[in-house]
Amino acid sequence: MRRVPEDGRIAARSLIVALLFVTCAFAQSDPLPSWNDGLAKQAILQFVRDTTDSSSPRFVPPGQRIAAFDQDGTTWVEQPIYPQWVFAVDQVKKLAAKNPKLAAAKSFKAVASGNWAAIAALTSNDLERILVAAHTGVTVEQFQAIVKDWIATAKHPRFNRPYTDLVYQPMLEVMSLLRANGYKTYFVTGGEQDFVRAYSEQVYGVPVEQVVGSAGETKYGYAPNGKAILKKLPKVMLVDNGAGKAEGINLMIGRRPTVAFGNSGGDQQMLEYTQGGEGARLMLLVHHDDAVREYAYGAESKVGTFSDALMDEAKQRGWIVVSMKNDWNRIFAFDP
Amino acid sequence: MRRVPEDGRIAARSLIVALLFVTCAFAQSDPLPSWNDGLAKQAILQFVRDTTDSSSPRFVPPGQRIAAFDQDGTTWVEQPIYPQWVFAVDQVKKLAAKNPKLAAAKSFKAVASGNWAAIAALTSNDLERILVAAHTGVTVEQFQAIVKDWIATAKHPRFNRPYTDLVYQPMLEVMSLLRANGYKTYFVTGGEQDFVRAYSEQVYGVPVEQVVGSAGETKYGYAPNGKAILKKLPKVMLVDNGAGKAEGINLMIGRRPTVAFGNSGGDQQMLEYTQGGEGARLMLLVHHDDAVREYAYGAESKVGTFSDALMDEAKQRGWIVVSMKNDWNRIFAFDP
């Protein structure tokens, strides 16, 4: 809109109103209210200020502002086991009930047993194989509808709430802050891409095209009505974990992120790859050290392993370790 | 910014200025000046109006507005051979000169011969293999620097201009129009992703994260200074052509495009997949029928084959066939 020339009186009043507005905005709105004041919060705020200030040597042009987030354990609860594994078990049980041949397969047995210790011992790769096998012949859109149905009803065993309630409020605030400052927020998850895409937009405001995850191959074909469809094949294309996260980022984003948030050894290479870019970069690891409000785990956990070596690397490379206990005054939106 | 309350006089003046501005804007600016009035232009303008009008039954919410463009032959010249193949030949020659073992390999010989008929007979898959093989061990960033150097100096044999001058002005206008209306413009190209990303942003305004193309695997590692790097491996991951375009779209975008533009049989499935989505969709094929200003080719061409069957399908499915000769009053920005 073209501005209308204003006379002096109007212009002066305009300036005063604008100043009042700006002052109030600064005084009232903390973009990260669930974060306690501390090094992590200050580092995030300072980084956003610097990278969006065109006079700063740390300025990052808007089109290059990419923030990559791990999902499990970084933006929602991953204990006692990754939500997608619970989904997989539920699905495998359903499918095995219908298909005795599938039920007899070894990997299916392990999963369908519902023995969490045995399931937790599986690798992401195993899980991906089982999941993809379980959904062979299903179209991508049918699969997402299955995930949507599941996630609308499944509940976490400890919190007795939908998994989508178990999202970390402080991380939602960081994602919003980054988006408000011209960052594109991406998921870079070991979870299956088609799974995370079923809820990423609604729950996190991350559109499906900004979800990078483990992926199986698909087969092109036609429905009986002639409509083009893609069916899921039992062949893993990308395991988006560890080094696979850097590869997935290159494949689907094509540039090194500016900001990367993770919480486990599976995120190590994503953070290294982020840091390897030119200019300002910010790397953070969420540390689960709050058994009262969530979980406390690290080197010994099969799920979301945070080894001593990773902690050493974080210190050495200047990554920020976020203590859930000390840095977050609220973990979930439903917390008091 | 909060609006300042205005007195009556100012408000009236404001309204008049605004109306004048809007009227002038409508009268003066045709968003597609290089398009002749005709069915194709009208269909594009109508589609953009409908899908951005929230009162229209064809409205598409902003976050779902995805426009997918083939590159070779749809947004720049692909005759007498795909620019990337010229690049490949130049690179293979250079590498063969340094490495006698590579030079002895059969596929390298065919390419290094510079015999365009033999080269044109290769499939995209062959080309992808050769290119990936030629750049094994090079990091992704080094590869893009090589492409940038090449594209800054290489010239088209007929037009004697850089390939980046041989971009279709009408297509740039469509891309701009779509972006101005909340569409994300993507390339979905049979060309190598890392190749197209080297110039997509500068030449077309398409950011690297919106380039879907053929891709090889990469290997994660560290440079001597400890910096994380990805090296190209001689293993094809995705051939983004034909059915591979639908698969690539699902892998990297995760939703069916709203708009798809192609020009050959390699784009058939992309258009079908686009059309298979719910709600308003627009599918177009550029037809090369202007030997004077560009090239005329179709069913008989090895490069950018536009078969009679494709033409029949276009008619049957209601796709719009754009005649370069009749629909475009200007092809290149340098045209009079």
Descriptive notes:
- 2 copies of one chain form a homodimer.
- Chain A has 15 helices and 7 strands.
- By secondary structure, chain A is an alpha/beta fold.
- Chain A has one domain: 3-Layer(aba) Sandwich (Rossmann fold).
- In chain A, β6, α14 (about 310-315) and β7 (about 320-325) form a beta-alpha-beta unit.
- The two termini of chain A are about 45 Å apart.
- Mean pLDDT of chain A is about 90; it is low at about 1-10 and about 20-25.
- The interface between A and B is large, with 48 and 48 residues.
Q: What is the percentage of strand-forming residues of chain A?
A: 5-15%
> Which oligomeric form is depicted?
homodimer
Structure class of chain A? alpha/beta
CATH class of chain A: Alpha Beta
CATH superfamily of chain A: HAD superfamily/HAD-like
**3D shape of chain A:** globular
CATH topology of chain A: Rossmann fold
Residues in helix, % of chain A: 40-55%
Give the integer mean of the pLDDT values of chain A: 89
Order of strands across the biggest sheet of chain A? Answer: 4-3-2-1-5-6-7
**Largest interface, counted by CB within 8 Å of the partner chain's CB:** A-B, 48 and 48 residues
Q: Which blocks of ≥5 consecutive residues of chain A have pLDDT under 50?
A: 1-8, 22-27
Note the total helix count of chain A: 15
Please give a quick description of this structure.
The structure is a homodimer of 336-residue chains. Chain A is α/β, with parallel strands linked by helices and 336 residues long. Chain A is built from 15 helices and seven strands.
